[in-house]
Design brief:
17 helices, alpha+beta, 8-stranded parallel β-barrel, 7-stranded antiparallel sheet
């Protein structure tokens, strides 16, 4: 008998079960008067039990002492005969009571014995343990923490967990459904008939529990919930750690068997504060990076590619299970399960492990802002609003047709906080990018007057969401040393990366994130670079304005997937002019971005100047770099530039050590609008500089004078985006540029240099 076949209630079992015990002669046992008819169930209890509405099925089913002996009662629809096998092999037959109920009174027993069941269907007989002879498999401390909303390891208490309980191996099923009149577990081992497996309510916590012997890894299951109105709904497990592959929607019993090999990485990550460390992120949509690859196949290719290009981290677009491929993972139904499209949870662990062993950090997009309305998932989970707010003005997301979480409910907040911890601890992730933070923070987000409810003080801030984000960040940083959280926050909310215990001028403590996506820089700089060079002088401020607020938060500069889809065009295609000019602008822009204060993120395909928008169905256009393609050299050149940008960046502390300190940056010239030129200095912790100069004009500027510190005799190029190997015109400086005692740009000394067209040049003291 397989683990998945035990306890089935179907009319016809899938596989015959071996007869494990001897079968004494029934007639002889009956003649001996060994058993008697059990007293009937109370009619109300019986009706609720059969309807799946009883809060305590263990009080009716199983073995219970009564006057004169012990009653054994079993619910096995479709069974022909049921027997209980007592110690020493004694077998007692249970009498049918109708509706799948069987019972017997075994006289002269002073206590409940250990027993097993023998259940015969049409032709087969199964030996199994009775789920209703077991004590609760969930402890009082777990229930106390769940009730308080403080269970930081919620995944160990709720969901499906394989365990040995009272010396029997099986699976404990637990689910939070406080509004349910009853809950039953059903699955493939019951032929999706859950009538024989009602769960018990564990008091006021709203948690229902059932230990099912013999069910193990790989079993597929759902919860059959009786709503308050008496109707039934079949739901996937909100805490499922593995799911069926979409479009199938059931949950799968699983356990972690991966043996991690990344101890060295885990021990040293976070040794340097993240805001003082080099962080260059390659953003990846795993299903389409190389379409068709599994997690394990990706582990054979992705780490080597990312390491070759010099990125310090990868960021996975949302990985948690989701039903609709076109959502790219941002409408989550399985918050605790990596999508099954590419393999198992252990397969995903293997991918993370491989990246760590290659020296690459792993970040993941996390989506606590909303969830879809699928009727088998979280929406009105137990018949009433549960995970979502009960008021539609607080629950209906106006942009995406989804539902927003009720952050004010302790159990919901616990579900999400524990989820953040889960991904970091169980999958060794190095950070989370929290999606759509602005939509969480504002009650009037995308809503008109009358469509939203103000907070208790009459304001538009979602105080519950603020408290949730603060708790999430505080908990994750406490439990997972070395991780970092990122906020995709598109407004000017004060204190996104301020510690939670420091109150700002608005009266709020900081949200506690490690970094914030600089959406303002992204929007402004892309707006500038998309203009024809002749018009750029009128938009010069769009490239300099970011320095006005550069130190208000800890920033990362994102060119993400959102900027290369839905008609926004790929990065190189945003540029004006012919193919040469677009590539030159692309290279110059990346050089400017890598030198600008803040970490950086680049979406896949943009590292080799893919011209087409990203498609989740087709992924990057790798063929552009194939030797048979006539322009392959152009695309390889851009890729080579990205590799060199990352190499020089990582080796140059001036470009990252003082990202969050004004002392790490000085303008040389920020107002050369007529020339389309920007020049600035970056400094490391001991004051060693790097000079970055960008010329966003298509003309060569000879003998261009720039003020520089007078403490260095000469400057030498360390990177030039116009180099021939990158596809440029090769206007490069092979000799050091000497410092002259000519005051310029408010400095006592200056240099004269040739600025290549549509290019960025980095120089350091010779």
């Amino acid at each position: 008998m397989t683990a998945r076949s035990a306890g089935r209630t179907a009319r016809k079992p899938k596989t015959p079960a071996p007869r494990a015990e001897a079968t004494p002669d029934r007639a002889a046992a009956a003649a001996a008067g060994a058993v008697r008819q059990a007293p009937p169930l109370d009619p109300g209890d019986r009706a609720r039990l059969l309807a799946g509405e009883h809060h305590d099925p263990h009080g009716l089913l199983g073995a219970h002492p009564v006057q004169g002996g012990v009653v054994i009662r079993v619910l096995r629809p479709w069974a022909k005969e049921v027997a209980a096998v007592l110690p020493k092999g004694r077998r007692v037959e249970l009498e049918p009571d109708g509706d799948g109920l069987f019972s017997v009174l075994v006289p002269r027993l002073r206590k409940v014995p250990e027993y097993r069941l023998r259940v015969r269907y049409d032709t087969d007989e199964l030996a199994l343990d009775d789920p209703y002879r077991f004590l609760p498999a969930l402890g009082e401390l777990d229930l106390h923490l769940i009730g308080e909303g403080r269970h930081e390891e919620l995944w160990t208490a709720l969901g499906a967990r394989v365990m040995t309980h009272q010396n029997v191996t099986g699976t404990r099923f637990t689910v939070w459904a406080p509004n349910a009149r009853g809950v039953r577990v059903t699955g493939d081992w019951t032929y999706w008939d859950g009538s024989a497996l009602p769960m018990r309510s564990l008091g006021s916590t709203g948690v229902w529990e059932l230990f099912v012997p013999g069910v193990g890894e790989g079993a597929v299951y759902k919860f059959d919930i009786t709503r308050p109105d008496g109707s039934h709904t079949l739901r996937a497990d909100p805490m499922a750690r593995r799911t069926e592959c979409p479009p199938n929607t059931a949950s799968v019993v699983t356990a972690d068997h991966h043996v991690w090999q990344d101890a060295d990485w885990m021990a040293r990550r976070g040794a340097r504060p993240h805001h003082e460390a080099p962080i260059s992120v390659y953003e990846v949509h795993l299903p389409s990076w190389r379409p068709g690859l599994t997690y394990r196949q990706l582990a054979d290719q992705l780490p080597a590619y990312v390491r070759d290009l010099g990125f310090t981290h990868v960021e996975f677009m949302a990985v948690a299970e989701h039903p609709f491929h076109g959502s790219w993972g941002y409408q989550v139904t399985g918050f605790y399960a990596p999508t099954a499209r590419m393999g198992t949870p252990d397969d995903f662990r293997h991918l993370v492990d491989a990246l760590h062993q290659a020296g690459i950090g792993v970040l993941m997009d996390w989506v606590p802002a909303h969830f879809p309305r699928d009727d088998w998932a979280l929406a009105e989970f137990d018949g009433r609003p549960l995970y979502e707010h009960e008021d539609p003005r607080r629950s209906a997301h106006p942009d995406w047709g989804t539902l927003e979480f009720d952050y004010g409910r302790t159990e919901v907040r616990n579900f999400l906080v524990a989820n953040a911890v889960y991904w970091c601890e169980q999958f060794h992730l190095d950070g989370l990018r929290v999606d759509a933070v602005a939509s969480m923070l504002y009650l009037d987000y995308s809503r008109e007057g009358g469509e939203w409810l103000p907070n208790e003080f009459g304001g538009r801030e979602n105080l519950d969401a603020v408290a949730f984000l603060q708790e999430m960040n505080a908990t994750v940083y406490k439990r997972c040393p070395g991780i970092i959280t990122f906020a995709e926050e598109s407004t000017a909310w004060d204190g996104v990366t301020r510690p939670t215990d420091q109150v700002g001028p608005g009266g709020f403590g900081g949200l506690g994130f490690g970094m914030k996506w600089n959406m303002g820089w992204m929007h402004d700089s892309l707006g500038y670079i998309a203009k024809e060079p002749v018009h750029r002088k009128y938009h010069h401020h769009e490239m300099t304005f970011s320095m006005v607020y550069a130190y208000s938060e800890n920033y990362i500069l994102p060119i993400s997937h959102d900027e290369v889809v839905h008609g926004k065009r790929a990065l190189v295609s945003k540029m004006p002019g012919d193919w040469w000019q677009r590539r030159a602008d692309h290279r110059a822009y990346l050089g400017f971005m890598w030198a600008h204060p803040g970490k950086q993120l680049l979406f896949m395909g943009q590292e080799f100047a893919q011209g087409a928008e990203w498609s989740a169905d087709h992924g990057p256009e790798w063929w552009l770099m194939d030797e048979t393609y006539h322009s392959a050299g152009d695309h390889r050149g851009v890729r080579d530039l990205v590799r060199d940008l990352n190499t020089v960046y990582t080796a140059t502390p001036a470009l990252w050590e003082r990202d969050t300190s004004p002392e790490g940056f000085q303008w040389i010239v920020g107002d050369a609008a007529e020339d389309n030129v920007f020049a600035f200095l970056r400094f490391d912790a001991i004051g060693a500089p790097l000079l970055a100069v960008s010329n966003f004009s298509p003309v060569v500027r000879h003998d261009y004078r720039l003020g520089v510190p007078d403490s260095f005799a000469a400057w030498t190029e360390v990177l030039n985006t116009d180099a021939a190997r990158y596809g440029g015109g090769d206007v490069v400086g092979t000799d050091p540029v000497k410092t002259e005692s000519v005051p310029w740009h408010g400095r006592a000394a200056s240099v004269r240099m040739t600025l290549p067209p549509l290019a960025t040049v980095w120089l350091r003291p010779a």
